[in-house]
UniProtKB/TrEMBL annotation:
One of its GO terms (biological process) is fatty acid alpha-oxidation. This is 2-hydroxyacyl-CoA lyase. Residues 14-72 form the Thiamine pyrophosphate enzyme N-terminal TPP-binding domain. It comes from Saimiri boliviensis boliviensis. Its EC number is 4.1.2.63. Residues 160-316 form the Thiamine pyrophosphate enzyme TPP-binding domain. Its cofactor is thiamine diphosphate.
Length: 337
């Protein structure tokens, strides 16, 4: 009899996975992202049973708040440590109590406007170049021409992200996602997937434009399968210069290999030239394009935006030695190692 009662009580007990799922549901969590395995699988199943949408990822990500990182890049006048949502709320509450604004005719504003004007002129000059292969600015100029004003813009990479920030515009709050000042690699596709889930559920027809450098794409490129599995509204643009910062063109690559084994002569920053990353997308059922000219870029982006049934990847070849304009501040390019 006691054994029977124990069995009945055991059957009534809730599993740890269900407890976690119920806690998430109580906190109004709508989406759950995870790497399949123990204990994620059990928690994911329990979450789906409660109506939480689960997105199974291929690459693990992490976020933390670390006081030691404050001032790691540039020494700040003031540091704020805390949850970004809570701190932002506190700042807004204090700003609501005063009507103070920074004087628009101050020396700082004047120098800032002058710098903005000179940067815009330099960017336009670079974007207007007709030579092939294209440079970063030419690519982003033609992409910007067709970007929907309500799209999410995700960017990841070194020059790709830095230049993209100055050329690719977004017009709505919380519609730009990138690696931030530390240049963390591997986060771009994860950001895009999360944004696409929100767009798909809340604003059907809204696109996520994910701009990746070819090196950055390599960190989590297999998330393309995740994108196709859930048929997410994402257009991936891989800005391909055959390397990390810079690479070799095909002729230079072949000539270099004539001398020794590639492990002895290929610079560490070089990647395989003309890699067809678009075929990763087509392998999983999406659409892929390999482009080398502004006209091909314009056409492929137009087709991708028009087709709302499948995600796309546009592999954009640029000059392997292309770089960004000179930087005024050494801390923008120096290493902290």
């Amino acid at each position: 009899m006691p054994d029977s009662n124990f069995a009945e009580r055991s059957e009534e007990q809730m599993s740890g996975a269900k407890v976690i799922a119920q806690a998430l549901k109580t906190q109004d969590v709508e989406y759950m992202f995870g790497i399949v395995g123990i204990p994620v699988t059990e928690i994911a199943i329990a979450a789906q049973q409660l109506g939480i949408k689960y997105i199974g990822m291929r690459n693990e990500q992490a976020v933390d708040i670390c006081a030691e990182e404050l001032g790691n890049n540039v020494k700040p006048a003031v540091t704020l440590l805390g949850d970004i949502s809570a701190v932002s709320k506190q700042l807004l509450e204090e700003l609501d109590k005063t009507s103070w604004v920074y004087p628009p005719e101050s020396k700082w504003w004047k120098s800032l406007r002058e710098k903005m004007k000179s940067n815009e002129a330099a960017s336009k000059e670079l974007a207007s170049k007709k030579s092939l292969p294209m440079n970063y600015y030419t690519v982003f100029y033609h992409v910007q021409e067709q970007l929907p004003t309500d799209c999410f813009v995700v960017s990841e990479g070194a020059n790709t992200m830095d230049i993209g920030r100055t050329v690719l515009q977004n017009y709505l709050p919380r519609h730009r996602l990138d690696a931030g000042t530390f240049g963390t690699m591997g986060v771009g596709l994860g950001f895009a997937i999360a944004a696409a889930m929100v767009a798909k559920d809340r604003s059907p027809g809204q696109w996520v434009i994910c701009v990746e450098g070819d090196s950055a794409f390599g960190f989590s490129g297999m998330e393309v399968e995740t994108i196709c599995r859930y048929n997410l509204p994402i257009i991936l643009l891989v800005v391909n210069n055959n390397g990390i910062y810079q690479g070799f063109d095909m002729n230079t690559w072949k000539e270099t290999l004539k001398f020794q084994d590639p492990t002895a002569v290929i610079p560490p920053m070089c990647l395989l030239p003309n890699s067809h990353y678009e075929q990763v997308m087509t392998a999983f059922g999406g659409k892929g394009y390999f482009v080398e000219t502004p006209e091909e870029l314009q056409k492929s982006l137009r087709l991708s935006l028009a087709d709302t049934t499948k995600p796309s990847l546009i592999n954009i070849m640029i000059e392997p030695q292309a770089t960004r304009k000179a930087q005024d501040f050494h801390w923008l390019t120096r290493s902290n190692m």
